[in-house]
Structures are given as C-alpha cells and as structure tokens.
Design goal:
There is one protein chain. This protein is α/β, with parallel strands linked by helices. The strands form four sheets. Strands 1-4-5-13 form a four-stranded mixed beta sheet, with helices on both faces. The longest helix is centred in the middle third of the chain and has 17 residues, at 211-227. It contains 17 helices and 13 strands. Helix 10 links the parallel strand 4 (195-202) and strand 5 (231-238). It has three domains: 3-49, Transferase, Pyrimidine Nucleoside Phosphorylase, Chain C (Transferase, Pyrimidine Nucleoside Phosphorylase, Chain A, domain 3, Up-down Bundle); 72-325, Pyrimidine Nucleoside Phosphorylase, Chain A, domain 2; 331-419, Pyrimidine nucleoside phosphorylase-like, C-terminal domain (Aldehyde Oxidoreductase, domain 3, Alpha-Beta Complex). It binds uracil (URA). Uracil (URA) binds at residues 84-85, 165, 174, 179-180, 183-184.
Length: 436
C-alpha cells in the first residue's frame, strides 16, 4: 500500500477500505507518512467528502492510534459530553457536578481554548493548584472513588487526532464535516465512555454556521456512535450570541459557581439543566426527560452539585478557598463599558466578534502555546430580544492594560445591532438527535 494511491483514490471519489484507513492513520501517527501527503489527503476529503462507512472507519482507525480506556468495570454507565466549541460555554463546569451528584460517573477529558472558542481546562486553571494532567490510572481511580473527573486530553489517547488537527489548522482543512466528526468521535471513543451527549453549536460563534450543516455533522456523529456501540445524542444549540453573560476564564468560572448556587443567566440555566437531563437519560438514571430535568434541578437546589464541584476541586489539588470566596479569583484592574448607540431592541450580539475580542484582550490564544490572562474578559450585558435605551451598557470589558480596550472598542460596537422593531429571542435549542 502507498499513501499516494490513497490520496488519488480520495481525489477521484473512490471509497477507501477499512485497511486503507488503518494504513494511513498508523503510518501518519508513526511519522512514516509525511505531513505534506496527509495535508493533500485532508484537502481531498474536504473537497469530496466521504461516505458514512468511510467516516466510521476513519474514526475507528484514529481511536485505535493510541491507548483506549476500558471503563467496563463501571457497568456501562459512564457518561461524557462534548461541545463543538462556542463563546461563553462554561457548561461542563456545571453539568459534570450535577450529573455526578445524581449518581452517574462523569469522566471527561477537555480541551484548551483555540481560536475564538474557550476551553474548560483554561477556565479550571484559574483555580490555583488545580491539576489538569491526570494519568490514566489517576483518571480511573478518581472516577471509581469520586464519580467525577475533569482533566486535559491525554496525549496517549487518539494521538492521530492531535497530529491531524494541528495540520488541518494550518492547511485550511478544519471546516470539513467528515474530519470534524472523526476528530470528535475518535477522542470520545478512545476515552471509553458508554454514553456521550454532544452539544453541537450552531451560529455566528460556532464552526457550523447553519442549522443544515450542524444537523449533518450531528447525524454523522450519532451514527458513528451507534456503529461503535455507544449511546449518543446530539443537541443542536444556539451560538449566534454568547451563552450566558461571562466570556473569559475566571469570569466564566465565577458564573459557573453562581449557577451551582442556583443563580445566573436564564439561557445558561436552561442549557445546563437540559444537557444534564439528557445525560441522565442516556445513563439510564430515569426514563423521562421531565423527571431527568427535576433530578438535575434538585441537585442544584439541595446543594449536592455544588458539594460535588468542591470535591472535584479538592481531589484535583485546587485551592478550594478560591471557589468558596470567588472574589479571590484573578480580577482585572480596569472595567470599561461599551454602550448602546440608540434606543430599540437588540437584534444581534455577534458571538464570533465577542469571542475574537476576548482573544485580543488576552482571554484566549491567537496560536497554540500563547499565554492567557485568566482575569480578563467580557460581560455581555444585553442579549438578543432585550429592549435597550441609548447609553445603556452592552458590554463590560475587563482588562489589565487600559490600551487593550481601545483595540476592541470598534469591534465590540460592530458586534451589536439594534432594531427599531421588537425582536424575538432565539430558541436555546434547535433540535435533539439520537433519542429513541
Ligand atoms: N473539535 C474537535 O475536537 N475537532 C475538530 O475537528 C473540530 C472541533
């Protein structure tokens, strides 16, 4: 077998076999197949697409490129979640403790922010000492003893994805449904969970800009999950505007802490309760969505989700006083406000512009390896559908360097549109796929 023959087959829209995918992925992971051949192949996939069978075979080959966790000792009920990436998406920080507090083990490997979308690991690292590089043994022990783990992606799981993703990032080949689906699902399958809730974001601040694209991606991922023996659902959720209010690492952590205490923005609340409910359903904790929602809400109301979060911070060596007294978390030196330029109803709060502005002021990374500032970020004070008057705050911008505000002021002003007519707020979710 030769890599060049595989590239030309995909270029000519001929279907690849499972053996060919294994050859390609194994030899790319070991370095036998050079980056330029893999990049040429990825571009052929981006332009020509792949069949469902091919996407599944690619996913399984990538999942088999490194270690695969065996969580069978947990009786088939470990649940995981994955968001395709958004702005202000601190959901994992709330949903994982809720679900674990309801008695379902949650073992999750999360990523760092890249581009304009944030990452759970960066948010957790706002807590001094919090350890995000657990070994496989630590992961399994903690899951057994505490029922909750939030750690960084292990380099030993699906290494082919790490390598391929970096290559796609610099060769214009990220935006391909087969490549995104196989990237997400190979990591999830290697991480061993039996049930996976996928939060597929749709809109200006997401990879998938339209409902059609998001649905196509979700359908492929649900079908890969089924073919590999996992229970998978996919929620198609709104990402035209940021989720909740806070965008930025410590600010988002504070908002998650408030939510675990039963306070916080309504859209974020509904998002957390619904996603938790679907995870409880997937994990067979109950058989109706209504009762699953009640279980999730009860875990917030009776404080058990908050206690689970504290337990997580303590066992992963974080200084728990920083979440007990969130005013101790990093705080920016200056807060500037962007105000509405006219009266009316908010019709656009562009999540992409807000996310990119947060990167410019230091809350995210322009490229892999950049340092982030946990204290800085943007508080979104107006949401789509809100009635607003001229001079009212739209964004509070938290910065450590006064000049940073000037670099994003125009961008943030342009991120907001105000209509003369009333505007309906968008739905929180567009659809749920994969539920029988
Ligand atoms: N998230 C992933 O894990 N992989 C992609 O390719 C895109 C988003």
């Amino acid at each position: 077998m030769r890599a060049v023959d595989i590239i030309t087959k995909t270029r000519d829209k001929e279907e690849l076999s499972s053996e060919e995918f294994h050859f390609l992925i194994e030899n790319f992971t070991s370095g036998e197949i050079p980056d330029y051949q893999m990049a040429a192949w990825a571009m052929a996939v981006l332009l020509n697409g792949m069949t469902d069978q091919e996407i599944t075979d690619l996913t399984l080959a990538m999942a088999a490129s490194g270690d695969q966790l065996d969580l069978s000792e947990f009786g088939g009920n470990v649940v995981d979640k994955h968001s395709t990436g958004g702005v202000g998406d601190k959901t994992t920080l709330v949903v994982a403790p809720i679900v674990a507090a309801c008695g379902l083990p949650v073992g999750k490997m999360s990523g760092r922010g890249l581009g304009f979308s944030g990452g759970t690991i960066d948010k957790l690292e706002s807590i001094p000492g919090f350890k995000t590089d657990l070994t496989t043994e630590e992961f399994i022990d903690q899951l057994k003893n505490h029922g909750i783990v939030l750690t960084g992606q292990s380099a030993d799981l699906a290494p082919a994805d790490g390598k391929l993703y970096s290559l796609r990032d610099v060769t214009g080949t990220v935006q391909s449904i087969p490549l995104i689906a196989s990237s997400v699902m190979s990591k999830k399958i290697a991480a061993g969970a039996d049930a996976i809730a996928l939060d597929v974001k749709v809109g200006r601040g997401a990879f998938m800009k339209t409902l059609e694209e998001a649905r196509a991606l979700a359908e492929v991922m649900v079908s890969i999950g089924k073919l590999s023996g996992r229970r998978v659902i996919a929620l198609l959720s709104q990402m035209d505007q940021p989720l909740g209010v806070a965008v930025g690492n410590a600010l988002e952590l504070k908002e998650a802490i408030e939510m675990l205490h039963g306070q916080g923005p309504e859209d974020f609340h509904v998002h957390c309760v619904d996603l938790s409910a679907y995870m409880l359903l997937l994990g067979n904790k109950t058989d109706s969505l209504d009762s699953a929602r009640q279980m999730a809400q009860k875990a917030i109301d009776d404080g058990s989700a908050w206690e689970k979060f504290r337990e997580l911070v303590i066992i992963q060596h974080g200084d728990v006083s920083f979440i007990d007294q969130p005013e101790k978390l990093p705080q920016a030196s200056f807060v500037f406000t962007v105000v509405a330029e006219k009266d009316g109803w908010v019709s656009v709060v562009d999540a992409k512009e807000v996310g990119e502005s947060s990167v410019v002021i230091g809350a995210g990374r322009a490229k892999k390896g950049d340092q982030i500032d946990p204290a800085v970020g943007i508080m979104v004070r107006a949401k789509i559908g809100d009635k607003i008057t001229k001079g009212q705050a739209v964004f509070d911008v938290h910065v450590n360097d006064e000049s940073a505000f000037d670099t994003v002021l125009e961008k943030l002003k342009n991120a907001v549109e105000i209509s003369d007519e009333p505007v309906d707020p968008p739905p929180y979710f567009w659809d749920v796929l994969g539920i029988e």
